[in-house]
Amino acid sequence: MRRLLWTSSLCAVALSLAGCPSEDEPAKDDKKETKKETKDEGEQDDAGSLMVAEGDGGVDGPVPPEVSMVFFAVEGALYPLACFDKDAKAIKTGAACLKMVKPGDAVRVASHDSQYNKKAGEPVEPQCLAGSGKKVAIGVEGITEGADFLYGTWPPAGIKVIKEVAEDSTGPAAVQIGDEETSKLKAAITSAGGKVGDELKVHQVAEIQGRTAKDKVYSVYVPDPKVLEQYKWSGAFLAEGGSLDKLTLIAKSKSKKDVFEVRGSMDLDGDKVNELWMRIVFAEGSGDQVFTLTGGKVSGLGKWSCGAVR
C-alpha cells in the first residue's frame, strides 16, 4: 500500500511519462505498439506525390560516417544528446552538436508511429529547463502539436540509423526471468557494490542489435521495504550476445530513487557498434543520455538531459 501511494504521487508530478506503475513496478511507458508509418510535410517528388518513407527507412540520403549527424531528444524542442563530426571522425555531445544545425535546416522528428520533416529554428530553452536561460535546444515550429514526438535527427536521413526498442519491453511478459537469470543478475549487482537480499525486481528487458548478435539490456532494482520512494539498488546491465555471463554495468542510481530504461540504439559513427539511448526515470520527471560501447566498456556522453543529476 505504501508503494502504491508513492506511485500515485509519482504520476502526478512526472508528467512526461506515458503511464503509471503498478504497485510493484516503477513508472513506465505503456503505450500500445502500432504499425510504423512515416510522412513528410511539404516535400514532393517530380511527379508531385508526397515522398513517404516506409517503416524505419526515413528519407533518402547518406548516413554516418559519410556525413555528420545530430541525434536529439524532444523536450518541446530538439535537445541534442549526441552527434558525429565527420571531419573530426568523433562522436561528440552538447554545444558541439548544437552548432552543427543552422536555422532553416531540414530535420526529421519521430514518434512511435510517424515521422515528419520539419525546419530548424533558432536555439531556445527546452521545456524541461524553462526559466533557466539556457538555450541548449533547437526550436522547431509545431513540434508540440499533433504526434507525440520522441526524437529527431539532422540531417533527416539520419533517422535511418535510429532503432527504437520494443514498446512492450517493460511489459509483464518481457520482464519475467528465470532462476538462472535472477542468480546472475544478483551476482552482477553484488559486484557493482549493491546488496540484493531475497528480492529482485525487473523493470525492463530489451533487445538491441549488437556487433554480431542481439544484445540485451536488463534494468533491475531492489526494493527497500524500510524507506518509502527508495530502492536498495537500481541500475541497468548490458548482456552482450544476450549472455548473462557477459554482463556490463551501464549505469546505476546514486540517489536510489530512480530506474533506467533503454529507449533505442544507433550507430552514430558507422563502426558497427551501436550506441545506447538511455532514460533515467524518477519522481520529478526523467532525463536522457547516450552511452558508447568501446572495448567492453560503457561510457556516458555528457550528462543526463534536463538537469537530471544522478
Topology record:
Elements: H1 2-13, E1 69-74, E2 78-85, E3 90-92, H2 95-98, E4 106-110, E5 115-124, E6 137-140, E7 151-154, E8 162-164, H3 179-191, E9 201-209, E10 214-223, E11 231-239, E12 247-252, E13 258-266, E14 275-282, E15 285-294, E16 297-300
Antiparallel strand pairs: 1-2, 1-7, 2-3, 4-5, 4-7, 5-6, 8-13, 9-10, 10-11, 11-12, 13-14, 14-15, 15-16
Relative strand content = 25-35%
User: Number of helix segments?
Assistant: 3
Low-confidence regions: 1-25, 27-57
Radius of gyration: 19 Å
The neighbouring-strand order within the major sheet is: 3-2-1-7-4-5-6
Count every beta strand, where a strand is a DSSP E run of 2 or more residues.
16
What is the arithmetic mean of pLDDT? 83
The end-to-end distance, rounded to whole angstroms, is 27 Å
Helix content: under 10%
Description:
The chain is mostly beta strands. The chain has 2 domains: 171 residues, no CATH class; 93 residues, no CATH class. Helix content is 9%, strand content 35%. It contains 3 helices and 16 strands. It has a 7-stranded antiparallel sheet. It has a 5-stranded antiparallel sheet with strand order 8-13-14-15-16, with no helix packed on it. The longest helix is centred in the middle third of the chain and has 13 residues. It is globular, with a radius of gyration of 19 Å.
